Structure formats: C-alpha cells, structure tokens
Amino acid sequence: MGSFLSILVTTMVLGSIYGLVAIGMTLIYGAMRILDMSQGSMVMIGSFVGWGVLVVAHWNPILAILAAFLLTFVLGAFTQLISVQPLTSRRSEIDFEMVTFITTFAVAIVFTNVALQIFGPYQRNVTPVIAGGISLWHRQVNLPYQNVVMAIVSVALMAALGLFLTRTRWGMAIRAVAQNLDAARLMGVPVGKLYPMTMGLASALAGIAGVFLGALYFAYPGAGDLPLLEALIVVIFGGLGSLPGTVYAAYAIGLIQATAEVMVGTTWSLPILYGVILLVLVFRPQGLMGTTSEARL
Hints:
The protein is mainly α. The chain is 74% helix and 3% strand. The radius of gyration is 19 Å and the shape is globular.
C-alpha cells in the first residue's frame, strides 16, 4: 500500500509539472504551427518572480502567481511580435516551422543571458507557496502541501484553459485559426491580435509553473532548460497540437516515471520512460491523440 501511494503522489506531482508547461506549448503549436522554444525561459522568469516576491519582498504567494502571470504574458506576446510576427507574411516562402523554431530559441537565449547578467549564475532558494506537509500510510509517504497546491492549481488552470477555448469568443477564434487559417481570416478573425495573445497566454502558464518549480528546485538562469525538454517530450508523446493528448501524456509519463522510480530506482526511471515512449511512437508516430489532420484543437 505504501508503494502504491508513493506512485500515486509522485504521478500527480510530475504530471502537474509536465502538463502545466506542455499545455502552453501545445496551444501555440495548435494555433500557430510553431514549436515555441522560449517557453523554458518563461519558466525561469517565473521562478525568479517567485524568488523576488516570496523571498525578497516577503509578499503573499498569490501576488507571486499573479505577478508571474502578468510579466510572462507580456514577455510572451513580445516574443511573438519580434520573432514570429515578422515572418508570418513570408510563410509560403520559408520553412516557417524551422525558422520560428530558431527565432524563438534565440529569444530564449537572450532572456537567459539577461537573467545571467542581472542575477549571476547562482542558485537561489525560493520559499514554498505553502509550507508544511502531511504523512500518509504510517509515515511512509510524505506529501508536502506545496505539491498538493501545485497539483490543484495545475488541474484548475488546464480546466480553465479548456473552458476558455470552448466557451469564450477569443477561445473559439483560436480554435477557428487552428482549424483553417484562411477561413478564419475571411470570417473576420483578427489574427494579428490573436497570435500575440495566444503566445502570451501560453507563456503565462509557464510562468506560473516557474513559481512552483522554483520552490521545488531553485531559481537560476538555467532553470527552464529541463522543463522545456520535458514539455517537448510530453507534447510529442501526446500528439502535436492536441490539448487532451497533452494532458493524458503528462500524467501517463508521470505514472511511468513514478512506477519505475519506486520499483527499480531512480537510475533506471528515465531509460524506462524513454523506452516506453519510443515503443509507442514507433507504432503511433502521431502520438497518443494526434491526428494527421491540420485541425487539432
């Protein structure tokens, strides 16, 4: 029973971390057909916002989440305007996905080096959003409140994103652009305004994840590198552009990794995880819920 609870707890924690970062990347790919490599830097910025608000200013954790959301939203929209928007009119002339992959990666490098110049290469401890924890099953499994809050916030944000896409005018506009860009333009969808908002929203989700990840690990200029890699794995495993697939893949990867860690140890958890992912992609290259159609959202 103790091992089962440990797997369950670890699955929820890892799935929440992976899902919150990856769902923004999926949203961008579904709407714009680009892989945004700046998402990792947004996680890093969010972790530094958490450090500044919680450790330096000693303010309320809710303010840290709101500040991270607003700052990374603005930076995400700015990234779209300078690295993607100038290329949209030349989509037919260039390899748009590859070029934007490079340009967003370049912006991420700039953000990382700016953080390196301001804060230095040092790791900074970030105060947990909520301290304390509970022990389960005769104290064999420890569950920090920080992880509970992170899982709840992640699920709530993913659910809110789903409602936004299905119940609001802007959300339906994003889905229309994902399904058929030319038809959406003919119907009067303001694509020039929609793209920055979409990238800003995705970046804001990554920024919130950064506040929680900073408390789990550290805030430092390279804090977004591993979350970016994990998000790419989740997005590809779930199916490029599929939001439900991303959510399922995040928790499936969390379950595989947690089970491997408990059963055979942390040394073999990643090799087993990558082996399972490779096996699935060999038989289903489009991912768990990906399709060969252009409409994914």
